[in-house]
């Protein structure tokens, strides 16, 4: 599989940050049993990973903008390009010693995401995609799942929690979705969840209250694997709305309809 120079830069940055996270993940497992717990240590791991990604990307393309979860946005002198980075997606999993987390790096060109990398160092799974070049898991070409009816489908989502999201609205969505599908999963790292849709592991996915760095890389992975994404209203303003519905042509449409059903009266 031939990767462009840009995608290579992204992959190298993800691998380097992944190495650092991997080391720190080992330490988190020790800290679970300490009195202080691993919280402060995890924030440091997160910041360290973003610093690594940022340095790698800006070294290779000093004029590009940079939007990362953990630092001030850099407006590049090149108005067309922007990196969108979540150095550690799945922080709660990481903190609890659950090996479901990732580094997510995307490249936006003129407002469109054109390349994405999602790397889970705990499983050594590297998801990559470039517009027009297909999506890959390590060296294997990816396609979204082919199931057409929700009753056969396993779909992922994100569950709001203490201090986050609209609990009532989510319960209505879930109530409608769970009555239609073969299973619902909450794995806890949105960037990886979207990569799983690209890989055909999830037939579909929906979540609200996300940020661009949670979704950018996953969006291009899904599109390049033949899938579709929109926001919860069916529009392409995914970053503005912070919501996403994904799947193949059939599942994406069906999930959109089901998650938008009104509050049941009984
Ligand atoms: C979170 C994860 C999680 C999603 C949250 C995100 P973080 O990102 O992607 O799955 O449900 O809304 O904020 O905080 O671990 O980078
Ligand atoms: Ca995130
Ligand atoms: Ca994060």
UniProtKB/TrEMBL annotation:
Reactions this protein catalyses: a myo-inositol phosphate + H2O = myo-inositol + phosphate
UniProt-listed PROSITE patterns: IMP_1, IMP_2
Cofactor(s) annotated in UniProt: Mg(2+)
Entry keywords, A to Z: Hydrolase, Magnesium, Metal-binding
GO terms for MF: inositol monophosphate phosphatase activity
One Pfam family hit: Inositol_P
Gene3D superfamilies: 3.40.190.80, Fructose-1,6-Bisphosphatase, subunit A, domain 1
EC number: 3.1.3.25
Keyword Metal-binding: yes
UniProt keyword Hydrolase, yes or no: yes
Similarity section: Belongs to the inositol monophosphatase superfamily.
Protein name: Inositol-1-monophosphatase
